[in-house]
Amino acid sequence: MQIVGQEVDDRLFRNAMGSFTTGVTVITTEIAEEVHGMTANAFMSISLNPRLVAISVGENARMFQYIKDAKKFAVNILSSDQQKESMQFAGQLKEEHEIAFSTYKGLPIIEDALAVVTCELHSEYVAGDHTIFIGHVTGVKLSQKDPLLFSQGKYRELKELQE
Fold it and tell me: Are the C-beta atoms of residues 145 and 114 closer than 8 Å to each other?
């Protein structure tokens, strides 16, 4: 099988993909009464009927095995005031701060998130060095807040356009 795109420089590819502005999520699950989380922006809605979402997790990430073992996960869509939470679960803080968790539909979730989607593992697909986990949605919580955004290697906030 010939792989198209091998001639594309890794840094150029990463920079181009980083130009796509995304929301920021923290994926959470629980194994043996211990909460695990990982910051991710590879998240999307797949289907309304049945309700399915997808997350992409690297094969070397600790969360990879946690999701496989737990067979369920929560997607915490972060609000604009949760940059510290994002950075902590991405391993970017020198000193961790206390994260307020609560439980929803049997899963640990981050309090005050913009939205939460809880899932049972529906299926998984290996795609290169990542696995795409498809989750069957079991619950949704939504708040009225602004989202935390990420683009070109930086956290961003929404700005209203002037007409």
Answer: yes
- pTM recorded for the entire structure: 0.89
Q: Which fold has domain 22-148?
A: Pnp Oxidase; Chain A (2.30.110)
- At residue 43, φ and ψ (nearest 5 deg) are -145, 140
Distance separating the N- and C-terminal Cα atoms of the chain: 51
Q: Measuring CA to CA, which residue among 99, 103, 73, 104 is closest to residue 85?
A: 99
Q: What tens digit of pLDDT does each residue of 10-34 get? A: 888 888 888 888 899 999 999 999 9
Q: Residue 131 pairs with which residues in a beta bridge?
A: 57, 126
Q: For the chain, which residues make up each domain, given as ranges?
A: 22-148
Amino acid, single-letter form, for residue 137 = V
